[in-house]
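Quick check before the chapter quiz. The format below is the same one you will see on the exam, so make sure you can read both the input and the output lines.
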Amino acid sequence: MTRFFGPSRREAAARGWLALALGAAVLSGACHRETLDSFFYDPLPAPAGGYQLSTAVIPSYQTLTIPTPDGETLNGAFISSSGRRADITVIYFHGQSNNLGTTWPRLEYLYPLGYNLAMVDPRGYGLSTGTPTEAGLHIDEVAIRAAVLALPGVDPAKVVDYGRSLGSGLAIDLAFTDTPAVLITESAFASIASFVNDATYVDFPSSFVSQSSWDNLGKVPSIPSPYLLFHGTADLYVDPKYSQELAAAHTPAGITQLILVPGADHDDVPETMGLDAYRAAIQTFVETALPAP
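Here is the expected output.
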């Protein structure tokens, strides 16, 4: 039986962006090659008046303000452990078109694990200054890690890097330069080149280029950290085969577990999997690598 699905909001937005970009190029008579970067990053600013973050699950948080060596200022939050495993800290990197406010529900999913949680918007997102580029985001990753490790009670030997979608590139890139205790990605891509070629429902014109590469597939073989990957089998935005390729590339370097979630799309892996099962998978993997003292 053939099933037909209408476009998701993400699909519709992407197709609309592509149509606008192509139309602008035609109207302007531009001879230069169009860039993919503005679509790929799509930074979401904070709402007017700032964030109104729920305290229904997470009772309190510490605002983080992090200066970068090149003059930007990053904004985010540090959420102290509820007490169960205060020795473990997760640094979470969100996806495109997101910020601290839209990512807050994801942090609420993780909070019952009892770990410290840190989420800082990279440049251009939320209340953070600047414009995202691959080089700039690398500066942000390093600055975020350094700031989190400097907080009281954070154990540098028990840091988990977690990246979702675009954030998988940041998490993998950071793990490549500063080895975490555990690496986790969700809905990860292999590289910008693979994303453009066949990872998405959007058919990018051959004239489109990117100043970014984000070669995740080239980096994971050099990351010795235990690596947990989640990917939905119904992801029409980033093909699940890329997480399979990342898992296969990492296996010689260290412990690897790939969880393919039947029926999940790009954005609803935890919900489709079930939040209890999602948390249990993370807890088992992380705490096998980092048993209680």
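If your answer matched, good. The two ends are 53 Å apart (CA to CA).
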